[in-house]
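Chapter summary example.
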Amino acid sequence: MASIFLSYRRGPGASEAAGRLHDRLASRYGEQNVFMDVDKLRPGTDFVDAISRAIGSSTVVLAVIDPQWAVDASGRNRIAEAGDYVRLEIGNALQRGVTVIPVLVLGAEIPPRDQLPPDLQPLAARQAVVLSHERFSTDILPLEVALNDLLSAPKGPEAGETAIPRTVPPKRTSYPEPSKATTILVLAVLGLALCGILSPFAWSMGRKELKAVDAGRRDPSSRGIANVGRILGIIGTLLLLLGVATIVAALGVGATV
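The structure predicted for these 257 residues follows.
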């Protein structure tokens, strides 16, 4: 039986975010322990009963919330509708006392308590996890820590069930791309001290380095050095532009004399 139930809105953006989350969790805890798509239920299956059974066998429900989770683009308040499947999923979990963790994607926020139907109002007080596309690999780490604790906690001697073994993601020692953080810092320092034309390169390379780190392609331990180089590159670029503007202004004044 699944121990992680993924609740989300079907649609552009939200489905992709939920799919990425599912793939990450399935690789950590096993495909059989992550329930995602009620769409895959066999024809003729009672939808409400299937949700109830799936949530009843779950340890935690992840409520993936996107900007149109409650109100769609046309202004329709979907979450207030009695037959809304997302409301049924989360309401069932809250009623059963199953742990519900809001997962905010695409810049979404949890709706205020007074904008939620009564059965979902407790959700407004739950601590949420924010997942961004650019920083997914680092944003998800606190969620995995929480899931490790929840899934490895015994359910009681009378339950007769075996908890999923605690899974700690292995620490990475290699990355597909080499870090350029030191080069960025050297260019930034040289740009400030000797040759200002190097500063824009340090700024641009630093920005790309941070994106590569957040995407998991380069060693995150280099992030601090790269960020310092990027900031120094910005400062050097501004000073370079200021110097160029001063020279141009001086030449303009000289030409009018």
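To summarize the output: The radius of gyration is 25 Å.
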